[in-house]
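Below is a complete specimen:
___
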Amino acid sequence: MALQFVFVLAVVAKSVLATTCPSSCPNLNIASGSQPITQAMTTNQYNCTSPHIKCVNPNGGSVYFVFYYNGTQVASVSGNGAVFDAVNCSTEKYQWITVNGAGVKVSSVTCSSP
């Protein structure tokens, strides 16, 4: 029994540590008409470099990210005063965000405030 546990633990540890990062992760495209969005390269939860995006409402009220994939709206994220999100890059050359625990492919973003 102890030997089986050690083997399972070793397999799980190997799969967790074997995360492969893409060779490069570009900034996310910003759609035309967007309020200014800042992007900074950070280390994400997978220990890979990826863009972290931020938009601020200069008036301190609601602010929204609207994400698109190939021109179709796929997600939105809101905040009060500012909104932040992490963009992940896949080894298959696409970018994605996490929404309600699920990965959503994205190709551009816009920021707006009412």
Remarks:
- The first helix runs from residue 2 to 17.
- The helical segments are 2-17.
